[in-house]
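The aim of this short unit is practical: by the end, you should be able to scan a pair of folded records and say something sensible about each. We start with the first protein, listed as its amino acid sequence and then its structure tokens.
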Amino acid sequence: MVVLQYGAVLHLNPVRSERWRRGYVRASPLRVLYGSVGDKRKGNTEKDAKKPKICTADELHYVDVSNSDWRLALWRYLPSSQAARRNHPLLLLSGIGTNAIGYDLSPESSFARYMSRQGFDTWILEVRGAGLSTPEVEFGEYHNDSTVTSVNGKRTDKFLEESQSKSQLLETVMRLSEKLSGFLNEEVQGPVGPQFLDFQGRLSTSLEDFQKQLDLIVKNNWDFDHYLEEDVPAVMEYIRSLSKPKDGKLLALGHSMGGILLYAMLSRYCFEGKDPGLASVTTLASSLDYRPSKSSLKLLLPLKEPLQTFNVPVIPLGAILAAVHPFASRPPYVLSWLNLLISAEGMMHPELLEKLIFNNFSNIPIKLLSQLTTVFQEGGLRDRNGTFLYKDHLGKSKVPVLALAGDQDLICPPEAVYETVKVIPEHLVSFKVFGEPRGPHYAHYDLVGGLLAAYQVYPRIIEFLTCHDTT
């Protein structure tokens, strides 16, 4: 038994702590660190009564994006009145194809709740197409009385084109699902367990949900630069207007693509000679240049051209992961390697991992994926035109950066993280790899929601944020 700060107690099984692959670490009581989702704080507004059940934040806000139909969802966690007063609000950005749930998975596993308990006015952005962020126009209500069609009062000449695209996309996804089902059936030897018999049902349910989103998918095909140039600036301005930091700056933290967005923002603003409005940046498992690493994302590169050739606008990541999860989590573990892409063995409770897989992932636009694959090209990530290399100007930034990596991260290995870190001036950057040779180990999501993150990772982040929370 190890007594930790904040009065929490960490129990380590003496046998399993030597061999982390054999079991789970049991930590309790985390409510001391996070507080309860049901905690009521003064200052909650009527927004609470309107927010959907899936939103576990104290408040849910929406931000309109200029020159688009998008309303972006912002989950807000009010700072604890018992914590030290902070000078800057904290903005959290998620990874590709994910929503806010990853930062607030449960009362016992909530990065956002932890930060609010430490006194930070904490906001999670759901970029366009993720979670509760929606276009203002309701899709699917077409009145087809001519080739020029009205969509809730807005005219479009693309109704037939979009209908054909949706039909082709659904047909393509159905073919891929049939091939996947056939492949898995061939891989399974011996008696078929319940999870295999249930596979078609799960896949059908996922595809039904996917079909409901086709209007949104076909009409809105966005890329990384849309997030960078439109979504993030819009929510930063909104947060400033409500939190009112004296110097007008925010603290920002990004996981995976969220961290890439922050790096790209620093680079772009340096190039343009502008102040990014950030007091500090923390990145978790993020890089602008993956070339030195053996990232598993390289497996996606061969898919890029075929998907573009067949005009497939999105990859239904959420539907795929939900459908194949039984094969990764139950005997004979045909696809168990998929779980290791998310969390190292023993670092997440199975129920929380399942909740993450079924609730955190959504669709990935091909335009977005295509732009992000430039992290494997010479010079790293580029803009949509391929002419601006984001890493080229990052070294001019004057914003302090904390870059964290996981020792068993198969998606963004430490070598990839360091490839970006090394271009930042040494006096402005801190770099740390979490994980030990004999365990514990940290995979891609463990820095955010692993069982030991609250004891090993979060305190390091709090130390950094506190250091740069001056005005």
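Turning to the second protein, read its sequence before its tokens, just as you did above.
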Amino acid sequence: MSEAETTSSEATAHQLPPWATAAQTDINDEALAALETYKKRDPSKVVVRFKAVGNAPIMKQNFYKITASNRFQAVIQFLRKELGWKSGDPLVCFSRWVFSFCTDGHLIVNYSTTAAWG
């Protein structure tokens, strides 16, 4: 590569808009570092145990490991997929341990086609 190409590629990689200051650059670097940390996968897993309630079909396998950082919506979507249900089919999920887990570390999710409690 010629010297002009090297200088040009370095300038493109670290080029700042004319309104940026050194303080904004530090904040930008901090934000980029935070985003990189956020993008990393969380290796910790949680065991989810599904229990059918009422007339809901019973799953052949009811223990699954999911990534701990997943939202509960991901658990519901996974359950729908395993049951073969479409997004419009009724599915009600109950978790007794909304903010904490039971003693064996499993998250127990009861599921039904209708509201079973309350």
